[in-house]
Design a protein that fits this description.
The complex is a heterodimer of chains A (about 775) and B (about 200).
Chain A lengths: L9 H8 L5 H11 L3 H11 L2 H12 L26 H8 L10 E3 L2 E9 L3 E8 L4 E8 L7 H16 L10 E3 L6 E5 L3 E3 H8 L4 H20 L12 E4 L5 E3 L4 H13 L11 H4 L6 H17 L9 H10 L5 H4 L5 H10 L11 H16 L14 H9 L3 H5 L17 E4 L4 E7 L13 E4 L40 H10 L3 H13 L3 H14 L3 H16 L5 H13 L3 H18 L2 H14 L4 H14 L3 H17 L6 H13 L3 H14 L4 H15 L2 H13 L7 H17 L3 H13 L4 H19 L1
Antiparallel strand pairs in A: 1-2, 2-3, 3-4, 4-6, 5-6, 7-8, 8-9, 10-11, 11-12
Helix pairs in contact in A: 1-3, 6-9, 8-11, 8-15, 11-14, 18-20, 19-20, 20-21, 21-22, 22-23, 23-25, 24-25, 25-26, 26-27, 27-28, 28-29, 29-30, 29-31, 31-32, 32-33
Chain B lengths: L2 H12 L3 H24 L4 H19 L10 H23 L7 H4 L6 H21 L5 H12 L4 H8 L3 H19 L4 H4 L4
Classes of the chains: A alpha+beta (about 775), B mainly alpha (about 200).
């Protein structure tokens, strides 16, 4: 008797209840439970609470006699052992001819049979020596008891011939098919292989990269078979052979499953062999097509990764029930390192309804290949997008309208489209305005591409969304160079010190890394710029250098599925750039990017948390103001932040910038705090001579909304006395029209007339002309009356 | 019962999530045969069996329409389970109130639990009997016997192990596995049997 008690294995207990243990684990747990009282109790508690045990006992004990039989072990038809074994000796006696050589056990036509190397529910595999061709072969013979079934024979041969027609590197080749004789058989090469089942029994489970490599090969084999209309119907680890040393696999035993289950289902109403890897439609006995194989492939992948089949029970009936009724245990509960996308992929293959299942095989193979790339090089290859999308999300994207594309010309701009020159681009705001001219020099030299050159002809002010009454001009929102990548992203670990060390060993200096990145950049291989540029970042001597690298990284980050890297780059530019115009563009780019990726709430969380850590972080505060103002349309929070901003400035003895004040005024107006807005606009006008005409105009509109016509007229008059910006005719049009509308609405028709006339003179846009002319007409009529 | 299809239609409109719809479908597929079997075993005439079953289903369906998500895991499934249980018990206790064997109800019930309590107990028994039928063939005879002998007949583990020629560890595994499966199965119909107090 052993005195030493084996260690407790709590993780096995729950698995045991779900029939999830491998044979080895079962043995281990059994031995442990022979001794350990604690684990016995624990197991019972996991199965049911004590009161449930006693409730069940008392209920079952007094079951009416009609159901009493359930306790006995009498006559239940469907109880059958899971595996049906065929004894090799019986087979040898029954089927083989006497051997001619001493080391053979028998003979099958010209093949000396040396040994039985395997037997399944459907046939027997023999190792033999083909004397005519002088080669070692493997021979598969139909199970002897099926040899007398004409249907089974015909199917066996037909399917073997069909399988022989599938010539594919991952499909077991078939030398010849022998339909005549007592037992039909076919001949295959003898490979130095083991089955995946043997491999699993030997090593437990496989690493993800190997599982993916095997999955790719099997799905390719399936694609080849399916393209010839052949459904394997018995995909399981035992039918997939793998090189003893290496990862090359071949799919074997094509069509045997069909021969077997058709025959035996009609005969004993039962499927011989293991149904663990069957599809639900197979279990139901329904029509089976290619998609059934894909379900089984899902089960194989599951088993390779977790070391146990997804559906298991003591009897075949139990397995079938599980197949049709329940979901397998999450792989992550068996291997916590299971990536979410991997779980999703296998679950997709495990859809009970064939229509919902991932497929066809060729697509599965492609997808697995992309997964393999991602697993090997996560930085270079994002997770395949379809694995990141929920079914609902797909529907949503389909239903999305795309009006923005049609309404606006999409200009490519900002950080990076090398060789494009953009001469002048007007950014208008209601609060103020500025003209920013940006240009990129064409890259003709072999050297690094030039970073974007920003030429500022006027100090930029904040671009602000239009007030409702303004005519609509919306081009700024559509100037982003980003390619839309609407897929959610996965969190990845942050940059750390090790990265710097790694960068140092690869590149001597930041400059060297930057040059490598720039070379790819000029080839427009932006994805490949990421690694060297990030190395340059790690080695950068100062913030000015980092700024340059971050600018260059924007392209690569734009193509990345994660949104955070690009956000970080833009944050850095917003915080560190010395050019107001660049900061402003970076903020706009960030807003557009967040919107495009649908990350508004995540962004709010990110920046609110950052602000909590440092309430004086100006860059963060500014970004948040933008988000609330432009993305969330939350003028209350935007105004609150702007006020906080003002307090912060005052504490430092500074005043808010006029553009900021104008924005705050606008946020007040949006909240319908018209008086506060109007007053702030007027105050701002006093500080900002250049844009005073605009501030007064906005004040006038706000007063009008506040219901104070007197002050509205006064503000409009003040605006009229200032010289408006004369840089853009369209802006002049807006200004004149805005003033005219205020005069018109306050009944000052005479004052409105010249502004409408000016507004008409400054635009060629039909809609605007029509509106202005109509109102001018009215104003003239009222004056003459 | 002409109103059943209508009820079902409005029910499906109410069940916006596809998962809930499936849960309802699965539930019906399981529950209807269960009810039929239960009433049949209670000696009702075939016509009455269909009638009562239909009544229970309709009363469940009309209640399902009132369902509101409560944010818990699998709430819809649990909810139908509770409703179904109440509806079935109501019918069981109602049929129990009718004098069955010619003995007046008041005599029969002296010293007995109230008819509702009895109906509850009967209902649980019916569920267990049904569950046993469902899962019986998922286990090898030895596994089943190990469960039955030790958990229902309450015989000592060691004795049963010897009799079945397996180790005590195997008996412990067997009985717990059967129990867990029974609980899983009955949980579809009876929350008490499913949710142990942990």
């Amino acid at each position: 008797m052993p005195t030493q008690q084996s260690p407790c294995a709590p993780e096995l207990l729950e698995l045991c209840l779900q029939d999830g243990l491998t044979a080895a684990e079962l043995g281990r747990l059994e031995a442990h439970l022979n001794q350990c009282e604690t684990c016995r109790k624990e197991l019972e508690n996991l199965a049911a609470a004590p009161h449930t045990w006693s409730l069940a006992a008392s209920l079952l004990k007094e079951l009416p006699t009609g159901s009493a039989g359930v306790g006995q072990t009498g006559d239940i038809q469907s109880r059958q052992p899971l595996e049906k074994s065929v004894h090799a000796t019986d087979f040898v006696v029954d089927v083989l001819l006497p051997a001619r050589t001493p080391n053979a056990i028998g003979r099958l036509d010209d093949i000396e049979i040396h040994e039985v190397i395997g037997s399944g529910g459907n046939g027997i595999v023999l190792k033999g020596w083909q004397t005519e061709l002088q080669r070692l072969v493997a021979v598969k013979v139909l199970r002897p008891d099926l040899c007398y079934n004409a249907d089974a024979r015909v199917r066996f041969v037909r399917e073997a011939r069909a399988a022989a027609a599938v010539v594919h590197p991952h499909v077991m080749p078939i030398y010849s098919v022998h339909a005549e004789g007592r037992c039909p058989y076919f001949v295959m090469p003898l490979l130095s292989c083991e089955s995946l089942q043997d491999r699993l029994d030997r090593v437990g489970c496989l690493p993800l990269v190997e599982v993916l490599q095997i999955g790719i090969q099997v799905s390719q084999a399936l694609a080849a078979a399916h393209s010839r209309g052949l459904v394997h119907r018995d995909i399981k680890p035992a039918n997939i052979l793998i090189e003893k040393s290496g990862l090359h696999v071949v799919l074997a035993d094509f069509g045997l499953a069909r021969a077997v289950d058709d025959a035996s289902l009609t005969q004993d109403g039962f499927v011989a062999g293991t149904p663990r890897y069957m599809s639900p439609e197979q279990a139901y006995g329904e029509r089976v097509d290619e998609r059934s194989d894909l379900f089984s492939l899902g089960s194989v992948l599951y088993a390779l990764w977790t070391g146990r089949p997804p559906f298991s029970a003591e009897t075949a009936v139990g397995v079938l029930r599980r197949l049709t009724d329940s979901q397998p245990r999450a792989m992550s509960s068996l291997r916590p390192e299971t990536p979410v996308w991997w779980e999703d992929l296998v679950m997709w293959l495990h859809q009970k309804v064939p229509e919902d299942r991932l497929g066809p095989a060729e697509h599965v193979s492609q997808l697995l290949e992309n997964c393999l790339r991602h697993t090997l090089q996560p930085a270079l290859h994002p997770i395949p997008a379809e694995l990141l999308m929920e079914v609902d999300a797909i529907a949503h994207i389909d239903g999305d309208d795309d009006t923005s594309q049609g309404d606006h010309i999409r200009l490519f701009l900002i950080w990076g489209v090398v060789g494009m020159v953009i001469s002048a681009l007007a950014i208008t705001t209601t609060a103020g305005m500025a003209i920013v001219a940006m240009s990129w020099l064409p890259d003709r030299s072999a050297g690094p591409p030039p970073p974007p050159v920003v030429v500022i002809s006027e100090p930029a002010t904040e671009p602000v969304t239009k007030a409702p009454a303004e005519p609509s001009i919306e081009f700024p929102a559509h100037l982003y160079a980003t390619e839309p990548t609407p897929f959610p992203s996965i969190q990845v670990a942050e940059v750390d010190d090790q990265k710097k060390a790694a960068a140092e060993t690869k590149y001597g200096s930041a400059e060297e890394a930057y040059r490598v990145g720039a070379a790819f950049y000029s080839l427009k291989e932006y994805v490949k710029t990421k690694e060297p540029f990030e190395a340059a970042l790690a080695l950068a001597p100062d913030d000015a250098y980092r700024l340059k690298v971050y600018r260059a990284l924007l392209q690569a980050y734009t193509q990345e599925s994660k949104w955070q890297p690009k956000a970080e780059a833009l944050e850095f530019i917003i915080a560190k750039s010395e050019q107001e115009a660049e900061r402003s563009l970076a903020r706009r780019e960030l807003m557009g990017f967040i919107r495009e990726r649908g990350k508004t709430s995540e962004a709010v969380k990110r920046y609110e948390e950052r602000l909590k850590l440092d309430s004086k972080d100006e860059a963060t505060m500014y970004i948040l103001i933008e988000i609330y103002s432009r993305l969330k349309d939350d003028p209350r929070r935007a105004a609150a932040l702007l006020e906080q901003w003002e307090t912060l400035k005052k504490a430092n003895g500074q005043e808010m910038k006029v553009s900021e004040a104008a924005q705050l005024a606008q946020e007040y107006v949006k909240q319908k705090k018209f008086q506060e807005g109007a007053e702030l606009y007027e105050k701002t006008a006093l500080r900002d001579a250049k844009l005073a005409a605009w501030h007064y105009k906005d004040a006038a509109a706000a007063w009008l909304k506040a219901g104070d016509k007197t002050r509205a007229v006064a503000a409009a008059k003040a605006s009229a006395e200032c010289a408006p910006e004369t840089r853009s005719e369209l802006l002049e049009h807006y200004w004149h029209r805005g003033l005219a509308d205020v005069f018109f609405d306050t009944g000052e028709y005479a004052l409105a007339i010249p502004h409408y006339e000016q507004a008409i003179a400054k635009t060629q846009i039909d809609g605007y002309l029509k509106d202005c002319r109509a109102r001018l007409e009215l104003a003239r009529m009222r004056v003459t009356q | 019962m002409t109103n059943l299809p209508d009820t079902r239609l409005s029910l499906l409109v109410r069940l916006q999530s596809r998962r809930d719809e499936e849960a309802w479908g699965e539930f019906l597929a399981d529950y209807e045969p269960f009810l039929l079997g239960m009433f049949r075993r209670r000696g009702l005439q075939e016509a009455d069996v269909r009638d009562v079953t239909q009544q229970v289903l309709v009363s469940i369906a009309s209640n399902v329409g009132r369902w509101q998500p409560d944010g818990q895991a699998a709430p819809f499934r649990r909810w139908i389970t509770t409703i179904a249980r109440n509806a079935a018990i109501r019918h069981l206790s109602r049929s129990a109130q009718r004098p069955v064997s010619g003995l007046p109800e008041q005599f029969a019930s002296i010293g007995q639990p109230s008819s509702t309590e009895r109906a509850e107990r009967e209902y649980q028994q019916e569920i267990l009997a049904w569950a046993i039928q469902q899962v019986r063939d998922e286990f090898q005879p030895t596994t089943w016997q190990a469960f039955w002998e030790t958990s229902v007949q309450l015989r000592p583990i060691a004795e049963v192990a010897r009799e079945l020629a397996i180790s005590t560890g195997a008996v412990y595994m067997a009985r717990s596995r059967v129990m867990a499966r029974l609980r899983e199965k009955t949980g579809h119909f009876d929350p008490d049997l499913h949710e142990s107090e942990e």
